[in-house]
Amino acid sequence: MKNTPVDYEVVSRKIRESGLKSVGKATIREIKKLVDLIEAETGDKFIRMEMGVPGLPPTQIGVEAEIEALKKGVAAIYPDIYGIPQLKPEIARFVKLFLDIDVNTEGCLPTVGSMQGGFAAFMTINRMNANREGTLFLDPGFPVHKMQIKILGQDYMSFDVYNYRGDKLREKLESFLKTEKVSSILYSNPNNPSWICFTKTELQIIGELATKYNVVVIEDLAYFGMDFRKDYSIPGQPPYQPTVAKYTDNWVLLISSSKVFSYAGQRIGMMVISDKIFNTKAPDLLRYYSSPYVGYALVFGSIYALSSGTSHSAQYALTAMLKAVNDGTINLTQPVKEYGKKARIMKKMFTDNGFSIVYDKDEDDLIADGFYFTFSYPGFTGEELLNEMVYYGISAISLAITGSERLEGIRACVSLVTREQFSDLEYRLKKFHEDHPL
Ligand SMILES: Cc1ncc(COP(=O)(O)O)c(C=O)c1O
């Protein structure tokens, strides 16, 4: 019997009872369930880093606007599928003030989370050209996007950008685009799971090649403004959140309110389509839609068919939150900076105890401290490491499910770890290090 921070016998038994062959191969939800059961029996609280959920209260201005709207009776009324009239200009204003990009309000759409925005974008964009087969993912990435592609019966290609940063990205990207099978490119920036952020050089390469090969970039800004090395929170003032929209007209932006406004529960996000793409005529769309125009097909085809628009009251919440950050009444990123502060402390605890950060650089710069980080320990694959760390009361997910080629890596999410748990985390990492000397 080993002497581990969480009772060895209980952990082993719970793993056996769960029927999981390997904790390291389990899905996020399976790990969550296993850890819930171990916590319940041992009374020990885990350092829970498996789920990417907000750990902060929702933006209050949104909550109040939504309650107000509900009291006025909006629940009884179908909202316009392209968004309530107050919201659309507020989205366009946000895009101007925080990205320095001009867009017509008709391309500014609310969606049921940015998750639905992604689904609707794949559904429409990947059907613009009958000879093209789907999306190129710049991995590592969010596994649900690939699930969406599979559900739609579309194809995808992917590669891990780890070895193709900076100028090296051009040749690699071009090798895929030359096939002329790629309809769209998707990546998240900052990146879930690795928290790398593309540099201006890289965004410029992506943009230039998107124009050259007539491909649409679907840029997932789920963690808008959360690269805390720079302050992107002052409306109308540089620096702006970097975006590919500076370097091509072929873009669709997915902007989530889940993390930056801690508004995940109300499932509201934004899809913003460039004027060029919105007005593009793609006759192959007529195979699925009544109109060959991308914007029309997206709104009156995909979004209508998926959910007939987005929750009416949540649209009032989003309008109010956007207006507040656009007007400068509240600061966009101040509340979420806590994630970066916690990540800095936690990453040091890991590296002081023999662990390494897997994705550690953006070209020459150290990556930012934010919502996620990735780590490894010498001699372990990610799967083996996760299996072992459960006995130390630490849970996370393997990078293997994210398209990463760094099979030694694990993704840690800082949001649910409280500062009160830092001493436990430090003790457990020290004990792990002692028990697995290097
Ligand atoms: C990279 C990425 N894209 C999209 C989403 C989904 O965002 P939403 O809650 O707005 O649907 C998430 C959520 O974790 C994410 O990490």
Q: Care to describe what's here?
A:
It is globular and about 65 Å long. It folds into two domains: 8-56 and 334-435, Aspartate Aminotransferase, domain 1 (Alpha-Beta Complex); 60-327, 3-Layer(aba) Sandwich (Aspartate Aminotransferase, domain 2). Strands 2-8-7-6-5-3-4 form a seven-stranded mixed beta sheet, with helices on both faces. It has a four-stranded antiparallel beta sheet with strand order 9-12-15-14, with helices on one face. The chain has a two-stranded parallel ribbon with strand order 1-13. It has helices at residues 8-18, 28-42, 60-71, 87-99, 113-125, 143-151, 168-177, 200-212, 275-278, 294-307, 312-327, 337-351, 382-389, 422-435; strands spanning 47-48, 108-111, 134-139, 155-160, 182-188, 216-221, 251-256, 269-273, 356-357, 361-362, 365-366, 372-376, 394-395, 397-398, 410-413. Helix 6 (143-151) links the parallel strand 3 (134-139) and strand 4. With 438 residues, the chain is of the alpha/beta class. The two termini are 22 Å apart. Pyridoxal-5'-phosphate (PLP) binds next to helix 5.
